[in-house]
Write a structure and sequence with these properties.
Number of helices: 9
Order of helices and strands: EEHHHHEHEHEHEHEEH
Radius of gyration: 17 Å
Strand content: 15-25%
Distance between the termini: 10 Å
Structural class: alpha/beta
Low-confidence stretches: none
Largest sheet: 6 strands, parallel
Length: about 220
């Protein structure tokens, strides 16, 4: 069936931070007078806090014995991340071309708290570049659960066989999309996950804006 929609992951696929997340996190909690933590600890707490509007639940779990307001920490970290957020080369032009030139429906499916992820779109100025956005923080689940992918497909009014998902993570993005009946393109970059053998295609991130249209035509 002909492809009608392209759905993207956000973090590490379309946008990155100019400074590494470990440094941004350490600076944020340090300014609050707290001991820095490993970013892996934060990521584990993030995975366990499936739902939520902000990152407050994550910080509440990590610093449950500290006299600190997790909502203040969440707001501070959100501001720091957005301050250092930058698009992958050519990403904005790519989104516009897919929708206006190539005629695809364009969606975004991203894990994380709703306010944190939506604020990234605002910071990037991309709110009007996608037809639909689903942030799993509003749901009772997250990728790779097919329900997350079904939500963005419903928002775009397309069938799974008419859509492709573009993301970097082998399990959450590639396996999740395939389990939902979509096709999957994996984004690769230095230090990132290994290529997933079941992905329909692989693209180096710095060449995403140059190669994705040709890859889509071949799927």
């Amino acid at each position: 069936m002909t492809l009608a929609a392209v759905v993207f992951d956000l973090d590490e696929t379309l946008a990155v931070t100019a400074r590494d997340r470990q440094t941004l996190l350490a600076n944020t909690v340090g300014e609050a007078g707290l001991e820095p933590i490993e970013y892996g600890t934060y990521e584990r707490a993030h995975r366990e806090a499936v739902t939520g509007e902000t990152r407050a639940r994550i910080f509440e779990t990590i610093y449950e014995d500290e006299p600190v307001d997790p909502h203040d920490l969440a707001e501070a970290y959100r501001g720091v991340v957005n301050e250092h957020l930058e698009p992958v080369e050519g990403a904005e032009e790519l989104l516009s071309t897919l929708a206006n030139g190539a005629g695809y429906r364009v969606g975004l499916l991203t894990d994380g708290p709703e306010r944190a992820q939506c604020s990234k779109l605002d910071a990037l100025g991309w709110t009007n570049l996608v037809d639909a956005t689903v942030v799993t923080g509003t749901m009772e689940t997250r990728k790779p659960d097919p329900a997350a992918f079904e939500a963005i497909l419903a928002a775009l009014s397309v069938e799974p066989s008419e859509a492709v998902y573009v993301g970097d993570k082998p399990e959450a993005d590639v396996e999740g999309a395939l389990a939902a009946g979509m096709r999957a393109v994996q984004i690769l970059y230095p230090g990132g996950p290994d290529p997933h053998p079941r992905a329909d295609a692989h693209i180096d991130r710095e060449r995403l804006h140059e190669e994705l249209l040709d890859v889509l035509e071949g799927l």
